[in-house]
Amino acid sequence: MFQIKIIGSGVAGLCVAKELIEKKTNITVIDKCNVPGPESCSWWAGGMLAPWCEGESTEKIIVDLGQESIPWWSKNVKNVVQNGSLIVALSRDERELKRFQRRTENYDILENEGVCELEPDLGKKFNKGLFFKNEAHLSPRDSLSELKNDLIKNGVEFVNEEFQFDENTYDKKEIIIDCRGLASKDEQKSLRGVKGEMLIIECPEINFTRPIRLLHPRIPLYIVPRGKGIYMLGATMIESNDNKNISARSLMELLNAAYAINPIFGEAKIKEIGVDARPSYPDNIPSIRRKDNVISVNGLFRHGFLLAPALARMVSELIFENKVPEIISEYSS
Ligand SMILES: Cc1cc2nc3c(=O)[nH]c(=O)nc-3n(C[C@H](O)[C@H](O)[C@H](O)COP(=O)(O)OP(=O)(O)OC[C@H]3O[C@@H](n4cnc5c(N)ncnc54)[C@H](O)[C@@H]3O)c2cc1C
Fold it and tell me: Does any ligand 1 atom lie closer than 6 A to the CB of residue 198?
Protein backbone atom coordinates (compact mmCIF):
# COMPACT_ATOMS: atom_id res chain seq x y z
CA MET A 1 0.00 0.00 0.00
CA PHE A 2 1.29 3.49 -0.90
CA GLN A 3 2.20 5.81 1.99
CA ILE A 4 1.19 9.36 1.10
CA LYS A 5 1.61 12.66 2.96
CA ILE A 6 -0.42 15.62 1.74
CA ILE A 7 0.84 18.97 2.99
CA GLY A 8 -1.93 21.59 3.17
CA SER A 9 -5.64 20.98 3.52
CA GLY A 10 -7.11 23.78 1.46
CA VAL A 11 -9.28 22.80 -1.47
CA ALA A 12 -6.30 21.35 -3.38
CA GLY A 13 -5.14 19.09 -0.53
CA LEU A 14 -8.61 17.83 0.35
CA CYS A 15 -9.60 17.06 -3.25
CA VAL A 16 -6.33 15.19 -3.83
CA ALA A 17 -6.91 13.21 -0.60
CA LYS A 18 -10.43 12.34 -1.73
CA GLU A 19 -9.25 11.03 -5.12
CA LEU A 20 -6.38 9.03 -3.60
CA ILE A 21 -8.39 7.43 -0.80
CA GLU A 22 -10.51 5.79 -3.49
CA LYS A 23 -7.30 3.90 -4.43
CA LYS A 24 -6.98 2.43 -0.94
CA THR A 25 -3.86 4.42 -0.06
CA ASN A 26 -2.58 5.27 3.40
CA ILE A 27 -2.94 9.05 3.70
CA THR A 28 -1.85 11.61 6.27
CA VAL A 29 -2.86 15.25 5.74
CA ILE A 30 -0.69 17.81 7.52
CA ASP A 31 -1.73 21.43 7.97
CA LYS A 32 -0.12 24.06 10.14
CA CYS A 33 -3.53 25.65 10.82
CA ASN A 34 -6.77 24.30 12.07
CA VAL A 35 -8.59 24.16 8.75
CA PRO A 36 -11.06 24.63 7.22
CA GLY A 37 -10.49 28.09 8.60
CA PRO A 38 -9.61 31.67 7.70
CA GLU A 39 -5.87 30.97 7.36
CA SER A 40 -6.38 29.16 4.05
CA CYS A 41 -7.24 30.97 0.83
CA SER A 42 -9.99 28.41 0.21
CA TRP A 43 -12.00 29.81 3.14
CA TRP A 44 -12.63 33.08 1.29
CA ALA A 45 -13.71 31.72 -2.09
CA GLY A 46 -17.04 32.53 -3.68
CA GLY A 47 -17.61 28.87 -4.55
CA MET A 48 -18.65 29.51 -8.15
CA LEU A 49 -18.33 26.49 -10.43
CA ALA A 50 -18.53 28.56 -13.60
CA PRO A 51 -16.30 27.06 -16.29
CA TRP A 52 -18.01 28.73 -19.26
CA CYS A 53 -18.11 32.19 -17.67
CA GLU A 54 -14.43 31.89 -16.81
CA GLY A 55 -13.76 31.42 -20.54
CA GLU A 56 -14.11 35.19 -20.79
CA SER A 57 -10.67 35.71 -19.27
CA THR A 58 -8.85 32.41 -19.44
CA GLU A 59 -7.70 29.63 -21.76
CA LYS A 60 -9.76 26.78 -23.20
CA ILE A 61 -8.06 24.15 -21.04
CA ILE A 62 -9.50 25.82 -17.91
CA VAL A 63 -13.00 25.80 -19.44
CA ASP A 64 -12.61 22.12 -20.35
CA LEU A 65 -11.10 20.92 -17.08
CA GLY A 66 -13.47 23.09 -15.04
CA GLN A 67 -16.44 21.13 -16.37
CA GLU A 68 -15.31 18.15 -14.28
CA SER A 69 -15.97 20.16 -11.12
CA ILE A 70 -19.79 20.15 -11.20
CA PRO A 71 -20.31 16.35 -11.25
CA TRP A 72 -17.36 15.84 -8.88
CA TRP A 73 -18.64 18.21 -6.18
CA SER A 74 -22.24 17.04 -6.67
CA LYS A 75 -21.12 13.48 -6.00
CA ASN A 76 -19.01 14.32 -2.95
CA VAL A 77 -20.82 17.10 -1.02
CA LYS A 78 -24.44 17.97 -0.36
CA ASN A 79 -24.67 21.72 -0.91
CA VAL A 80 -24.06 22.08 -4.66
CA VAL A 81 -26.75 24.18 -6.35
CA GLN A 82 -26.96 23.87 -10.14
CA ASN A 83 -29.07 26.88 -10.96
CA GLY A 84 -26.81 28.50 -13.54
CA SER A 85 -25.11 31.92 -13.49
CA LEU A 86 -26.60 35.20 -14.70
CA ILE A 87 -24.51 37.97 -16.25
CA VAL A 88 -25.86 41.52 -16.50
CA ALA A 89 -24.58 45.04 -17.21
CA LEU A 90 -26.13 48.46 -16.72
CA SER A 91 -27.24 49.99 -20.04
CA ARG A 92 -24.21 52.33 -20.14
CA ASP A 93 -21.96 49.23 -19.94
CA GLU A 94 -23.75 47.04 -22.49
CA ARG A 95 -20.55 46.93 -24.54
CA GLU A 96 -19.10 44.83 -21.71
CA LEU A 97 -21.92 42.33 -22.11
CA LYS A 98 -21.22 42.06 -25.85
CA ARG A 99 -17.54 41.51 -25.16
CA PHE A 100 -18.35 38.81 -22.58
CA GLN A 101 -20.70 37.15 -25.06
CA ARG A 102 -18.01 37.11 -27.79
CA ARG A 103 -15.51 35.43 -25.53
CA THR A 104 -17.72 32.72 -24.02
CA GLU A 105 -20.06 29.90 -25.07
CA ASN A 106 -22.94 27.79 -23.78
CA TYR A 107 -25.28 30.62 -22.75
CA ASP A 108 -28.80 31.84 -23.54
CA ILE A 109 -29.40 35.50 -24.33
CA LEU A 110 -32.18 36.99 -22.21
CA GLU A 111 -34.15 40.18 -22.77
CA ASN A 112 -35.46 42.32 -19.92
CA GLU A 113 -38.46 40.05 -19.10
CA GLY A 114 -36.27 36.95 -19.12
CA VAL A 115 -33.85 38.54 -16.63
CA CYS A 116 -36.77 39.60 -14.36
CA GLU A 117 -38.34 36.18 -14.55
CA LEU A 118 -35.13 34.47 -13.52
CA GLU A 119 -34.31 36.86 -10.68
CA PRO A 120 -37.32 39.07 -9.83
CA ASP A 121 -35.29 41.03 -7.27
CA LEU A 122 -33.17 42.51 -10.06
CA GLY A 123 -36.19 44.59 -11.04
CA LYS A 124 -36.44 45.88 -14.59
CA LYS A 125 -33.19 47.78 -14.87
CA PHE A 126 -31.25 45.26 -17.00
CA ASN A 127 -32.22 45.22 -20.69
CA LYS A 128 -30.23 42.13 -21.48
CA GLY A 129 -28.54 39.24 -19.70
CA LEU A 130 -26.56 36.10 -20.44
CA PHE A 131 -27.71 32.94 -18.72
CA PHE A 132 -25.21 30.08 -18.31
CA LYS A 133 -27.74 27.49 -17.21
CA ASN A 134 -25.34 24.57 -16.69
CA GLU A 135 -23.17 26.31 -14.12
CA ALA A 136 -23.34 25.74 -10.36
CA HIS A 137 -22.20 27.08 -7.00
CA LEU A 138 -21.50 25.71 -3.54
CA SER A 139 -20.68 26.95 -0.06
CA PRO A 140 -16.89 26.58 0.19
CA ARG A 141 -16.76 26.33 3.97
CA ASP A 142 -19.50 23.69 4.25
CA SER A 143 -17.99 21.72 1.37
CA LEU A 144 -14.49 21.70 2.85
CA SER A 145 -15.84 20.55 6.25
CA GLU A 146 -17.91 17.84 4.65
CA LEU A 147 -14.96 16.60 2.61
CA LYS A 148 -12.68 16.58 5.65
CA ASN A 149 -15.21 14.67 7.80
CA ASP A 150 -15.71 12.15 5.05
CA LEU A 151 -11.94 11.63 4.75
CA ILE A 152 -11.62 11.12 8.52
CA LYS A 153 -14.40 8.51 8.36
CA ASN A 154 -12.44 6.75 5.60
CA GLY A 155 -9.30 6.50 7.68
CA VAL A 156 -7.33 9.60 6.65
CA GLU A 157 -5.27 10.98 9.51
CA PHE A 158 -5.18 14.80 9.96
CA VAL A 159 -2.17 16.26 11.77
CA ASN A 160 -2.02 19.88 12.92
CA GLU A 161 1.64 20.91 12.51
CA GLU A 162 3.96 22.84 10.23
CA PHE A 163 5.77 20.58 7.77
CA GLN A 164 9.41 21.44 7.06
CA PHE A 165 10.42 20.86 3.46
CA ASP A 166 13.88 19.49 4.06
CA GLU A 167 14.95 16.81 1.60
CA ASN A 168 17.25 15.25 4.19
CA THR A 169 14.57 14.59 6.77
CA TYR A 170 11.69 13.01 4.93
CA ASP A 171 11.30 9.36 4.18
CA LYS A 172 12.14 8.72 0.50
CA LYS A 173 9.71 5.80 0.46
CA GLU A 174 6.76 8.12 0.97
CA ILE A 175 5.06 10.21 -1.68
CA ILE A 176 4.75 13.81 -0.53
CA ILE A 177 2.13 16.03 -2.16
CA ASP A 178 2.77 19.72 -1.66
CA CYS A 179 -0.57 21.60 -1.58
CA ARG A 180 0.61 24.58 0.47
CA GLY A 181 -0.80 27.24 -1.84
CA LEU A 182 1.11 30.53 -1.67
CA ALA A 183 3.32 29.22 1.17
CA SER A 184 5.16 27.14 -1.48
CA LYS A 185 6.64 30.41 -2.73
CA ASP A 186 9.80 29.59 -0.74
CA GLU A 187 10.50 26.73 -3.20
CA GLN A 188 8.70 27.96 -6.30
CA LYS A 189 9.89 31.46 -7.00
CA SER A 190 7.45 32.05 -9.87
CA LEU A 191 4.42 31.80 -7.56
CA ARG A 192 2.82 35.15 -6.77
CA GLY A 193 -0.26 36.35 -4.92
CA VAL A 194 -3.28 37.92 -6.58
CA LYS A 195 -5.15 39.67 -3.82
CA GLY A 196 -8.89 39.12 -3.55
CA GLU A 197 -11.11 41.17 -1.26
CA MET A 198 -14.65 40.10 -0.44
CA LEU A 199 -17.57 40.73 1.90
CA ILE A 200 -20.19 38.54 3.49
CA ILE A 201 -23.43 40.47 3.94
CA GLU A 202 -26.88 39.67 5.25
CA CYS A 203 -29.87 41.03 3.38
CA PRO A 204 -32.95 38.82 3.82
CA GLU A 205 -35.10 41.35 1.89
CA ILE A 206 -33.41 40.20 -1.33
CA ASN A 207 -33.81 36.71 -2.68
CA PHE A 208 -31.32 35.78 -5.41
CA THR A 209 -31.07 32.12 -6.29
CA ARG A 210 -27.90 31.96 -8.39
CA PRO A 211 -24.57 33.83 -8.75
CA ILE A 212 -25.05 37.16 -10.53
CA ARG A 213 -22.16 38.97 -12.20
CA LEU A 214 -22.44 42.68 -12.85
CA LEU A 215 -20.04 43.64 -15.64
CA HIS A 216 -18.23 46.95 -15.48
CA PRO A 217 -15.10 48.13 -17.33
CA ARG A 218 -13.20 48.67 -14.06
CA ILE A 219 -15.01 47.01 -11.15
CA PRO A 220 -16.81 43.80 -12.11
CA LEU A 221 -18.71 42.35 -9.15
CA TYR A 222 -20.31 39.04 -8.40
CA ILE A 223 -22.86 38.12 -5.77
CA VAL A 224 -23.15 34.51 -4.65
CA PRO A 225 -26.17 33.47 -2.56
CA ARG A 226 -25.35 31.38 0.49
CA GLY A 227 -28.97 30.88 1.61
CA LYS A 228 -31.02 32.48 4.41
CA GLY A 229 -30.38 36.01 3.11
CA ILE A 230 -26.58 35.68 3.26
CA TYR A 231 -24.50 36.77 0.22
CA MET A 232 -20.85 36.74 -0.69
CA LEU A 233 -19.77 39.87 -2.62
CA GLY A 234 -16.54 39.58 -4.53
CA ALA A 235 -13.98 40.00 -5.53
CA THR A 236 -11.10 42.30 -6.38
CA MET A 237 -8.06 41.13 -8.39
CA ILE A 238 -4.96 43.03 -7.34
CA GLU A 239 -1.30 42.13 -7.97
CA SER A 240 -0.21 41.76 -4.35
CA ASN A 241 0.75 39.14 -1.76
CA ASP A 242 -1.13 41.10 0.92
CA ASN A 243 -3.68 38.80 2.55
CA LYS A 244 -4.79 41.04 5.39
CA ASN A 245 -6.04 44.51 4.59
CA ILE A 246 -8.96 45.60 2.46
CA SER A 247 -8.52 49.09 1.01
CA ALA A 248 -11.14 51.79 1.52
CA ARG A 249 -11.47 52.01 -2.27
CA SER A 250 -12.22 48.30 -2.67
CA LEU A 251 -14.74 48.36 0.15
CA MET A 252 -16.55 51.34 -1.38
CA GLU A 253 -16.49 49.89 -4.88
CA LEU A 254 -17.83 46.47 -3.84
CA LEU A 255 -20.67 48.11 -1.90
CA ASN A 256 -21.41 50.62 -4.68
CA ALA A 257 -21.70 47.80 -7.21
CA ALA A 258 -24.05 45.85 -4.92
CA TYR A 259 -26.12 49.03 -4.49
CA ALA A 260 -26.28 49.40 -8.29
CA ILE A 261 -27.71 45.88 -8.55
CA ASN A 262 -30.39 46.62 -5.98
CA PRO A 263 -30.46 49.67 -3.64
CA ILE A 264 -31.94 47.47 -0.89
CA PHE A 265 -28.38 46.15 -0.44
CA GLY A 266 -27.76 49.56 1.18
CA GLU A 267 -29.58 48.19 4.25
CA ALA A 268 -27.53 44.98 4.40
CA LYS A 269 -25.60 44.01 7.53
CA ILE A 270 -21.89 43.48 6.91
CA LYS A 271 -21.04 40.18 8.56
CA GLU A 272 -17.43 39.68 7.42
CA ILE A 273 -14.69 41.34 5.44
CA GLY A 274 -12.25 38.85 3.94
CA VAL A 275 -8.93 39.18 2.16
CA ASP A 276 -6.51 36.62 0.79
CA ALA A 277 -3.91 36.25 -1.94
CA ARG A 278 -4.65 33.64 -4.59
CA PRO A 279 -1.66 31.39 -5.35
CA SER A 280 -0.87 32.04 -9.04
CA TYR A 281 1.81 31.30 -11.61
CA PRO A 282 2.70 34.00 -14.18
CA ASP A 283 0.21 32.61 -16.77
CA ASN A 284 -2.56 32.11 -14.16
CA ILE A 285 -2.75 28.43 -15.16
CA PRO A 286 -2.26 25.82 -12.41
CA SER A 287 0.44 23.25 -12.62
CA ILE A 288 1.40 19.80 -11.32
CA ARG A 289 5.15 19.41 -10.89
CA ARG A 290 7.13 16.40 -9.81
CA LYS A 291 10.63 16.09 -8.42
CA ASP A 292 11.58 12.63 -7.18
CA ASN A 293 8.95 11.66 -4.61
CA VAL A 294 7.51 15.17 -4.19
CA ILE A 295 4.52 16.20 -6.31
CA SER A 296 3.33 19.79 -6.16
CA VAL A 297 -0.19 20.95 -7.01
CA ASN A 298 -0.39 24.71 -7.11
CA GLY A 299 -1.26 27.95 -8.89
CA LEU A 300 -5.02 27.50 -8.62
CA PHE A 301 -5.44 31.29 -8.96
CA ARG A 302 -9.17 32.14 -9.00
CA HIS A 303 -10.11 28.57 -9.89
CA GLY A 304 -9.51 26.52 -6.73
CA PHE A 305 -12.95 24.93 -6.47
CA LEU A 306 -13.33 24.85 -10.22
CA LEU A 307 -10.08 23.00 -10.97
CA ALA A 308 -9.08 21.04 -7.85
CA PRO A 309 -11.18 18.00 -8.91
CA ALA A 310 -9.44 17.76 -12.31
CA LEU A 311 -6.01 18.32 -10.77
CA ALA A 312 -6.73 15.65 -8.13
CA ARG A 313 -7.66 13.18 -10.90
CA MET A 314 -4.38 13.97 -12.67
CA VAL A 315 -2.35 13.41 -9.48
CA SER A 316 -4.01 10.03 -9.06
CA GLU A 317 -3.25 9.12 -12.70
CA LEU A 318 0.34 10.27 -12.28
CA ILE A 319 0.88 8.08 -9.20
CA PHE A 320 -1.04 4.97 -10.25
CA GLU A 321 -0.73 4.99 -14.06
CA ASN A 322 2.43 7.05 -14.52
CA LYS A 323 0.39 9.27 -16.86
CA VAL A 324 1.83 12.74 -17.49
CA PRO A 325 -0.74 15.38 -16.41
CA GLU A 326 -2.39 17.62 -18.98
CA ILE A 327 -1.33 20.65 -16.95
CA ILE A 328 2.35 20.65 -16.23
CA SER A 329 5.19 23.11 -16.41
CA GLU A 330 8.21 21.14 -15.33
CA TYR A 331 8.44 17.41 -15.12
CA SER A 332 11.16 15.23 -13.77
CA SER A 333 10.70 11.88 -12.14
C1 LIG B 1 -11.94 36.41 -2.61
C2 LIG B 1 -11.71 35.12 -3.35
C3 LIG B 1 -12.73 34.54 -4.10
C4 LIG B 1 -12.53 33.33 -4.77
N5 LIG B 1 -13.58 32.75 -5.44
C6 LIG B 1 -13.43 31.55 -6.06
C7 LIG B 1 -14.52 30.91 -6.71
O8 LIG B 1 -15.65 31.41 -6.70
N9 LIG B 1 -14.32 29.70 -7.33
C10 LIG B 1 -13.08 29.10 -7.33
O11 LIG B 1 -12.96 28.01 -7.92
N12 LIG B 1 -12.01 29.68 -6.71
C13 LIG B 1 -12.16 30.89 -6.08
N14 LIG B 1 -11.09 31.49 -5.45
C15 LIG B 1 -9.76 30.88 -5.55
C16 LIG B 1 -9.52 29.80 -4.51
O17 LIG B 1 -9.90 30.26 -3.24
C18 LIG B 1 -8.03 29.43 -4.52
O19 LIG B 1 -7.64 29.06 -5.83
C20 LIG B 1 -7.81 28.21 -3.60
O21 LIG B 1 -8.28 28.49 -2.32
C22 LIG B 1 -6.33 27.80 -3.50
O23 LIG B 1 -6.35 26.62 -2.73
P24 LIG B 1 -5.05 25.89 -2.19
O25 LIG B 1 -5.53 24.63 -1.55
O26 LIG B 1 -4.03 25.82 -3.27
O27 LIG B 1 -4.45 26.89 -1.08
P28 LIG B 1 -4.98 27.21 0.40
O29 LIG B 1 -6.46 27.18 0.46
O30 LIG B 1 -4.31 28.48 0.82
O31 LIG B 1 -4.44 26.01 1.28
C32 LIG B 1 -3.06 25.87 1.62
C33 LIG B 1 -2.98 25.22 2.99
O34 LIG B 1 -1.61 24.88 3.25
C35 LIG B 1 -1.33 25.07 4.62
N36 LIG B 1 0.13 25.20 4.78
C37 LIG B 1 0.95 26.14 4.25
N38 LIG B 1 2.23 25.88 4.59
C39 LIG B 1 2.24 24.76 5.35
C40 LIG B 1 3.26 23.99 5.97
N41 LIG B 1 4.56 24.29 5.88
N42 LIG B 1 2.90 22.89 6.70
C43 LIG B 1 1.59 22.53 6.80
N44 LIG B 1 0.58 23.23 6.21
C45 LIG B 1 0.90 24.32 5.48
C46 LIG B 1 -2.11 26.36 4.95
O47 LIG B 1 -2.36 26.46 6.35
C48 LIG B 1 -3.40 26.17 4.13
O49 LIG B 1 -4.43 25.58 4.89
C50 LIG B 1 -11.26 32.70 -4.75
C51 LIG B 1 -10.22 33.28 -4.00
C52 LIG B 1 -10.43 34.47 -3.30
C53 LIG B 1 -9.32 35.07 -2.46
Answer: yes
